[in-house]
Amino acid sequence: MVKRFFERFYIGLILVFLYAPIIILIVLSFNSSKSRSKWGGFTLHWYKELFKNQSIMNALYTTLIIAFLSALIATIIGTAAAIAINSMKKTPRTIMIAITNIPMLNADIVTGISLMLLFVALRYTLGFTSVLISHITFNIPYVILSVMPKLKQLNPHTYEAALDLGASPVYAFFRVILPDIFPGVFTGFFLAFTMSLDDFVITHFTKGPSINTLSTKIYTEVRKGIKPEIYALSTLMFITVLLLLIIINRRSADKKEPVRRL
Amino acid sequence: MTDNKLINLVNITKSYNDNIVLDELNLYIRENEFLTLLGPSGCGKTTTLRIIGGFESPDHGQVIFEGRDITKMAPNERQLNTVFQKYALFNHLTIAENIAFGLKIKKKSKAYIDDKIKYALKLVNLEGFENRMPDSLSGGQQQRIAIARAIVNEPKVLLLDEPLGALDLKLRQDMQYELIRLKNELGITFVYVTHDQEEALTMSDTIVVMNQGYIQQIGTPEDIYNEPQNAFVADFIGESNILPSIMVEDKLVNILGTNFACVDTGFGHNKPVDVVIRPEDIDLVKPEDGIITGVVTSLLFKGVHYEMEVNAHGYDWLVHSTDLVPVGSEVGIFVDPFDIQIMNKPESEDEEAVELEL
C-alpha cells in the first residue's frame, strides 16, 4: 500500500513539474486582470481579442497552410523514399536509414542556420516558399520513420501477386501496397503536420521579414511585452498539438486495422 | 498430358553476385502436365519458377511459351498465374474482391465476374465465403482462395511455389488430393515447386530433381524412386543405402567384398560404381539363407514398419521391415537382384550434376 502510494506520488510530482507551467498559462489566459499575480475573475475577453487581431489571424493562416502543404509533400516524398530504402540491399539500407535519421536528432538551430545559409547562398529570397521547403525537409524523416515498419510487415509477394493477376506496377501500388501501408502513411502525415505546427527555430531562421507563423509571431509579440492574448493563443496551440498527438498515439496503438470495406 | 511442348526453357543461366543459381538449364513442360521441381533449398527450383512467372529475368537463355519468346515479357502480360508460398492474399479486400482482382483488370462484365467467383469458390469447396476477410480464414482456406484467385483468370499454366509448405501434415495430405482433383477438372498445366519428396511423388506426372542449379534427373515418380541415376537423387528421394561397389561384370556386382547378382548391364568390367538399395527391399532371413550376415544394432518403431540398422561387413544397413528382429540377433541379409540399382560414380563435380539429354 505504502509503496503504491509513493509510486503514485512520484508520478504525480513528475506530472506537476511537467505541466504546472502550462496550467499557469492556461489559467492566466482566462484571467480578466492584466496582472500576472492577481486573479481578476474568469473571462473569454482575451480569446475574443485574439480572434480580432488581424496579424495573429494571418500568422495562424500561414501556419496552417505551411503545416498542411509541408506535411502533404513530405508524406509523398517520404513514402516514396521509404519504399526505395526498403527495397535496397542490407548495407546501403542501413546507411540510408542512418542518414535520414540524422536530421531528426540534429539540433534545430543547426538545421535552421544551415538552411538559411543555403537559401542565402542560392540568392533565394526568404519568405513563404523558403519556410515551406524547410518544413518539408525536416518532415521527411518523420514520414520515413512511420512508413518503414509498415513496409517491413508487408508480405513481399502481395505486390508480385497483383502483377501476376495482370495489374500494372502503378495499379498494383495504389490498389495493393498503399492500402496495406496506409496506417503508417497517415501517421506520418499527422506527425509531420504536428512537427510543422510546433516548429519555431527553423522557421525563425528561414522566414524572412515578410511573413510570420504563430510561433514566430508570439516571439515578436513577447519581445514587445506580454499581452494576455498571447496566453490565449499559446493555450490554443498547446491543445491543438495535444489533440494531434493523442490521435497519432491512438492510431499506432490500434494494431488491428478497424477500417474494413464491405 | 499431351506431347505438345507448352513451355520451353533454353540454356537458362542466372546468378546473384557471382553465385550461380542456375547453370545452362534446359527443360520443357508439356501441355496438361503436372510437373514438379524438387530439390533442397537453394537448388534453384524457386528461381526457375520465378523466371517462368516473369519475376526474375535470366542472365541469358530463353523462355519459350507456345513457340513465342517471352523472356523479356512483364509478369502482368504473361498468360500464367502463380500461387505464392505465403498465399499473398490482399488483406484489405474481401474474398470476392480478391478473386475478382484479375478479372476487374481485364474489364470483364459484373455478371461474368460474379459467375466466376461462384464457380471458383465451389471448385475449392469454400462456397459462401464471398464477404469474409482473408485474415478470418485458416491457413488451408487462405491457400484455397489463393488458388481460386489464380484459376479464375483461366491461365494455361498454374505455377505453385511450395503452396502447402505452411500447412500441417494432415491438411497437407488433404490438399494434395485436392490439387490433383483440381488439375484434372481444369485440364491445365501445373508447375509445382517443393522440397518435400513425398508431395512430389504423390502428385506429379513428371519430377525434375534439382541440386545446386543443375537438373539431376527427370522422370516419372516411379523412375525417380526406383531408378535414381545418382547418389544425390537416391539420397534425396526417400531413404536408401548407398554403397560404393565394384561392377565385376554384367549382372554381377561386388558390394563390400561379396558378389551380389543384379540385372544391370553395360557398366564394363571391374568398374567402381555406386549401388542403391532401398531399406524396404532388404529381406532379413536366417543367417544361413542370407547373402551376407550381420548383427542388428538398433531398432525403432515407426508406425507402419520397424526401422533397423544391421551392421554387416563394416556398413550399417538401413532396413525397413514389418517383422521385428531384436537388437543383438544375428541375421542374414538377402536382396533380390531386381532391387539392386547401379549408378555410375561421378568422376568430376560437373558430372555429379548430371545434365540430361532431353
Describe the fold and architecture.
The complex is a heterodimer of chains A (about 260) and B (about 350). Mean pLDDT of chain A is about 85; it is low at about 255-260. Chain A is about 80% helix and about 0% strand. In chain A, helix 3 (about 55-85) runs parallel beside helix 6 and helix 8 (about 170-200) packs antiparallel against helix 11. Chain A is mainly α. Chain A has a domain at about 55-215: MetI-like fold. Chain A is built from 11 helices and no strands. Chain A is globular and about 70 Å long. Chain B has about 350 residues and is an alpha+beta fold. Helix content of chain B is about 25%, strand content about 35%. Chain B contains 9 helices and 20 strands. Chain B has helices spanning about 45-55, 95-105, 110-125, 140-150, 170-185, 195-205, 220-225, 230-235, 350; strands at about 5-15, 20-30, 35-40, 60-65, 70, 80-85, 155-160, 190-195, 205-210, 215-220, 240-250, 250-255, 260, 270-275, 280-285, 290-300, 305-310, 315-320, 330-335, 340-345. In chain B, the strands form 4 sheets. In chain B, strands 6-7-8-3-9-10 form a 6-stranded mixed beta sheet, with helices on both faces. In chain B, a hairpin with a 2-residue loop joins strand 4 (about 60-65) and strand 5 (about 70). The two termini of chain B are about 15 Å apart. The chains are: A mainly alpha (about 260), B alpha+beta (about 350).
Under CATH at level 1, the class of one domain in chain A stands as Mainly Alpha
Provide a count of the helices of chain A: 11
Structural class of chain B, by secondary structure, is alpha+beta
Count, helices of chain B: 9
Strand order of the largest sheet of chain B: 6-7-8-3-9-10
Dominant shape of chain B: elongated
Q: Report the radius of gyration of chain A as a whole number of Å.
A: 22 Å
